Amino acid sequence: MGRQSRARMELRDEQQTGQQQLAAEKARQEAAQQLAAKQAGVEKAKQQTAQQQVAAEKAKEDAAQQHAAQLAAAEKARQEAAQLAAAEKAKQDAAQQAVQEAAAEKTKQQAAQQQAAAEKAKQQAAQLQAVAERTRQDAAQQAATEKNKREAVQPPADRAQRRPPDERPESNPNAKPQCGAPPANSPAGRNNGPVRVAENVQSAKLISQPKLIYPPAAQAAHIQGTVRVQALIGADGRVKNATVHSGPLPLQAAALENARQRQYKPSIVDG
To answer: What is the pTM of this model?
Structure first.
C-alpha cells in the first residue's frame, strides 16, 4: 500500500509537473506571440511612420512644385502684361506720331497754299498795277490829244481865258450848279468846249452803271479805299474819257472800267 501510494503520488506529481511545464510552455509561447505581435505592431508603426514621412515629403515637394509653377505663371502673366502694355504704348505712340505727321503735312500744305495765294495775289496786283499804269498813260495821252485838238480849234481869246483841266479846282459836293446864260458877247457864250459840272449834280443824272467788280487780288490782300475818277461825258450821256485822280492803285483799273461804262442823262447848257 505504501509503495502504491507513493507511486500514485509520484505520478500525480509528474502529471502536475507536466501540466506546469505545459502551462509554462504555453505561457512562454503566448509571451513570445505577444512579443512578436508587439514587435510586428512596432514594425508596422515604423512602416506607417515612414510612409507618412514619405507622403509628407512628397506633399511638400508637390506644394513646392505648385508654388514654383504659380510663381512661374505669375511671372509669365506679368511679362505678357508688360509686353501688351508696351505694344499698346507703341501703338498709341505710332498713332500720335501719325496724327502729328498728318497735322504737319496739313500745315505744310496750307502754308504752300497760302504762299501760292500770296504769290498769285502779288502777280495779280502787279498785273493790275501795270494795267492801271497803262490805262493812266493812255488816258493822259488821250487827254493831251483831246486838249491839243480843242486848243487847235479854239480862238486865241477863248484859249487865253480858259484854264487847262489840270489847273481847275476840285469839285465841291456842296457847290451849287451855275445857271443862267452868259452875255452874248462874252467868250464863254461862244465856247462849245466841255463844261465842268459839280459831282453831286452829275450823280443825280446817272441812268445806269454796271456792277463794280472787286479785283480778286485786292480782295485777297484786303485792300479798301475810294477811287476818285474825272470823266468827260458826251452830249449823248456816254462817258467819252475817264482818268483817275486818286485812290488805291490795285482798285483804280476796276473803278476806271466801271466809270467808262456808265450812262448819264444828257446835260443841257444855255438852253
So the answer is: 0.33
